[in-house]
Amino acid sequence: MDIYGDKRSGNCYKLQLAAGLLGIEYDWHDVDILKGESRSADFLALNPAGEIPLVVLDDGRRLSESNAIINYFAEGTPLAPIDAYHRATIQQWQFWEQYNHEPRIAVARFIKLYQGLPEARRAEFDALQKPGHRALNLMDQRLLNQPWLAGDQLSMADISLYAYTHVAGDGGFDLSPYAGINAWLARITEQPGYVALEAG
Ligand SMILES: N[C@@H](CCC(=O)N[C@@H](CS)C(=O)NCC(=O)O)C(=O)O
């Protein structure tokens, strides 16, 4: 399969990490979002949403949305539980990630890492810190008591949340107070097939 993405993006890294853990091979195609490549006519023909990551399967079918893609990767493997309630708890964390975590942590990281914290976005950056820490605190409360976010084993919920949590420092978030999160981050790096984010 072909993956279109940006090596600094946490949403794209979710695919690299899931593929590593599952032993899935792919060809990687860099898309430079700062140069507008995700909005080019050629790319919009592949994904009308104009966003990465995007997967083109060997039969030509396409899939976007990072969490939908990694759930597709996991289908039929031990990382996708059969039990309906367990699957729903994984999705519960993934929907929460997209609405409450990524819009704070990833956006603050984008402003600081990609854009160099321009003065014009300073107030927005500062305003993201409090809700970002609220999201981190919620994860920490869970992870102080349980090794994994959903159920009692590693799941795609962990991959989805690991992506931007482990680089939250790039967005100005100090992770040192979060003992539960730090132990969980270490557990994930110990998984067979773990791959690190290549570019930060
Ligand atoms: N909900 C989407 C978000 C994807 C997203 O925000 N992609 C960003 C890069 S991380 C992007 O393509 N930005 C370029 C643009 O919007 O033009 C997902 O989880 O895949």
Layout of strands and helices, then pairs:
Layout: E1 2-5, H1 10-22, E2 27-30, H2 41-46, E3 54-56, E4 62-64, H3 66-74, H4 84-114, H5 122-145, H6 156-165, H7 179-189
Residues 9, 11, 33, 38-39, 50-53, 65-67, 98 line the site of glutathione (GSH).
Provide a short characterization of the protein structure.
The protein has seven helices and four strands; from the N terminus they run E-H-E-H-E-E-H-H-H-H-H. The protein has 200 residues and is of the alpha+beta class. The site of glutathione has 13 residues, from helix 3.
Provide key terms for this protein.
200 residues, alpha+beta, Glutaredoxin, Glutathione S-transferase Yfyf (Class Pi), Chain A, domain 2, 2 domains, 4-stranded mixed β-sheet, 7% strand, globular, binds glutathione
What does this protein look like?
- There is one protein chain.
- The chain has 200 residues and is of the alpha+beta class.
- It has seven helices and four strands; from the N terminus they run βαβαββααααα.
- Strands 2-1-3-4 form a four-stranded mixed β-sheet, covered by helices on one side.
- Strand 3 and strand 4 form a beta hairpin.
- It starts with a strand and ends in an 11-residue tail after the last helix.
- The relative contact order is 0.16.
- The mean pLDDT is 97.
